C-alpha cells in the first residue's frame, strides 16, 4: 500500500492539463483556428474566415480582437482567406501561404511570407512546414496543408481542404503529427466524413483528431453525420466553435 501511495503521489503532477504547458487550440468554426504554442509566445491564426462565417460565434466576430503572431492561409478561397488581409493590416501580423498567393496581397513586403511544398518558415518559437493538399486554389497558386512544429517536439497538422492522397504517408513518415485538424465536411468540393476517417486510419497515428469544415452551410455534412462517421474512433475529438481547449 505504501508503494502504491508513493506511485500515485509521483504521478499526480503529470495528470491532466490544467497545470501543464500545452498547445491551446481555439476553433472559430469551419476551418478557422487559433493555435498558441505551449510557451504562449506564438499564436497562429489559420484560415481566417470570421466576419461572414455562420459558425463563428457573434462574440468572436470583431477582427480587431485578433493579434496573432502570424496568419496561415492554406489556399485563397474566400472561406479560408476572407479576413486575412484586414487582420494583417489591423494587427501587423505576417501572412504565410503559397508564394503566388501572398505576393499579390496588398500588404507591405515585410508582412508577406511565401513558400511552397517542402519549405519551412520559423515564426516565434515554432516552425511552419508546407505540405501538399489535393484541392484547388485558382488563380492564386496551389493549395497547401500546414504542419506546425512546436519546441516540445509535438506537431500539429492542418489538412486544409483536401481529398485523401497517397503522399499523406510521407507527411506521417516525415512529421508524425500528434494533432490533426481534419477536413471532414464533404459536399461537392472535399472528402466526405467516411473518407476523412479512412485517411487517418490508413496513413496516420495521431494522439487526437479534430474534425472541421462541416456544418457551415447545408451543402456540407452536419455535425451528426460527421460524428456518426467517427463512431468507435477513440482519437476523434469534437470541438465547439468559440471554445479553447488545451492539448
Describe this protein with a few key phrases:
single chain; 247 residues; alpha/beta; Metallo-beta-lactamase, Chain A; seven-stranded mixed sheet; six-stranded mixed sheet; 13 strands; globular; disordered N terminus
How would you sum up this structure in a few lines?
The protein is of the alpha/beta class and 247 residues long. 21% of the residues lie in helices and 23% in strands.
User: Which structural category fits the helices and strands?
Assistant: alpha/beta
Residue share in helix:
10-25%
Quaternary structure annotation: single chain
Q: Remind me, CATH topology?
A: Metallo-beta-lactamase, Chain A
How would you sum up the major sheet?
7 strands, mixed
Number of strands: 13
Describe it.
By secondary structure, the chain is of the alpha/beta class. The chain has one domain: 4-Layer Sandwich (Metallo-beta-lactamase, Chain A). It has helices spanning 2-11, 78-81, 84-91, 99-102, 168-175, 193-203, 223-229, and strands at residues 24-27, 33-36, 43-46, 70-72, 94-98, 112-115, 120-123, 126-132, 144-149, 155-158, 179-183, 208-212, 244-246. The strands form two sheets. It has a seven-stranded mixed β-sheet with strand order 6-5-4-3-2-1-13. It has a six-stranded mixed β-sheet with strand order 7-8-9-10-11-12, covered by helices on one side. The longest helix is centred in the last third of the chain and has 11 residues, at 193-203. The protein is globular. It starts with a helix and ends with a strand.
